Amino acid sequence: MPAVDKLLLEEALQDSPQTRSLLSVFEEDAGTLTDYTNQLLQAMQRVYGAQNEMCLATQQLSKQLLAYEKQNFALGKGDEEVISTLHYFSKVVDELNVLHTELAKQLADTMVLPIIQFREKDLTEVSTLKDLFGLASNEHDLSMAKYSRLPKKKENEKVKIDVVKEVAAARRKQHLSSLQYYCALNALQYRKRVAMMEPMIGFAHGQSRNGRGCREAECREKKSRQLFITPHVCWGAWVAQSVKRPTSPQDMMSRFVSLSPASGSVLSAQSLEPASDSVSSSFCPSPTCALSLSLKNK
Amino acid sequence: MPAVDKLLLEEALQDSPQTRSLLSVFEEDAGTLTDYTNQLLQAMQRVYGAQNEMCLATQQLSKQLLAYEKQNFALGKGDEEVISTLHYFSKVVDELNVLHTELAKQLADTMVLPIIQFREKDLTEVSTLKDLFGLASNEHDLSMAKYSRLPKKKENEKVKIDVVKEVAAARRKQHLSSLQYYCALNALQYRKRVAMMEPMIGFAHGQSRNGRGCREAECREKKSRQLFITPHVCWGAWVAQSVKRPTSPQDMMSRFVSLSPASGSVLSAQSLEPASDSVSSSFCPSPTCALSLSLKNK
């Protein structure tokens, strides 16, 4: 159904029942997306939480291993060996902790943050514009009712002119808010695809960057640590390879955005008055095809 | 101070103030050990908990990625690519989940369980025997007091014989319980060193076994998964190498136990009556030197 691709801004002024019906479909879709996004964010925050808890737990374990020395055991004979062995294990746990901490930071920055931003920016924008559109529509309906209740007498000509002015202003306001609302809903259809995948690319990229950090450390501590440090390199490299290794998730996104041609009909909204300024700011052309192709051509 | 090495069972019967004083040193040591063990257990359970939470979190994330398909978006056009990409990411997260789950199981079995067993078996045994020894001592004191209050008259000869019998029985009982208690305290001095390190060996071994499982999987799914699967192999192998790679922590322990010669003076307790049976059961010769040497000669 190609007609459902977007809300045509040209039809915003007429505000026909057909346009309203199509609008309700877009609104339903945005509602489903909001629910899904909240659940996805919850799942991602849980992964981040677990990773963060692993940092704290390994930190505590390492400290606890070192604390053996400070226990003032009444019988400390022969404990030197135990102490030095526990120190050694503590170091091992510390190194593991460094990896966990780095990974937790990556997850926060590249997985959780983008989806929070999507929710706070895009979804909140749609919901705000929905409210404004509702208010403008009500205002317009009220002024129309006022106009229809006007007496037909000649002597009320001046009042009539005022009411007509009011109707015109209300219609202009409703038109403006509907243009903004339609644009936000159209943009959301493109944004949502990127928004669903950006955090997972960040997730994969986080593992990859984590791996690269480890690889550098590996070069420094060549021999003894070599085998210990490679884990995240391997897994990171594999994931990074699968997603064709971009420089950063942002670079990846911008590459996709610049690759995809602007899709005409929606963009044409920008030439319409009066909502053009607010349209372009929230507009995001479709990067999804390029993105998913790149992901699938592994 | 070689005299503080062990409580001499030969001195249990005499129960001199010097022996009592030495006993209190061993008791203080056992108390410190109990506190430390509880803290160490807590730290290890936290690591296990974090690992377990990571399993559940990755499971939830994978499910949530798959759930996109079932959202009944009012506008589903072009979602096939998003769906297939999220399916792909879900698989990646699933594979990560398998590794996390395996590792969590290993941590439970080889890190948390041994220290719980040490607490439940060794520390609880010492605490129980301490109570029994206290009861037997009180009983002995009471019968001694009874004996000392006996009138010196001839006609009470029969009563006197009964009280003497009672004192003898109480002393035998106290002697038995002190032998058991001393043995448990002596054994604890050896056990504690192993008990502190066994969970960390289990921790390292868990990573190693986890790695081996992955390596087998790696052989099966040679090419595409190769880089992904190696992580835990590397870290596991490094740790395992450091601890001279035993077949299992139990094997490692039994090897150390069989290697170390029985240390005479404590063992000689077994020839003493009446506590010999219960002595040998809780006795554990010193595996610590062999263990820590092996750990340090990496």
TrEMBL record, chains A, B:
Gene3D superfamilies: Arfaptin homology (AH) domain/BAR domain. SUPFAM superfamilies: BAR/IMD domain-like. Residues 8-208 form the BAR domain. Coiled coil: none annotated. One of its GO terms (biological process) is signaling. InterPro entries: AH/BAR_dom_sf, BAR_dom, DP13A/B. It comes from the Eukaryota. GO terms for cellular component: endosome membrane. This is Adaptor protein, phosphotyrosine interacting with PH domain and leucine zipper 2. The gene is APPL2.
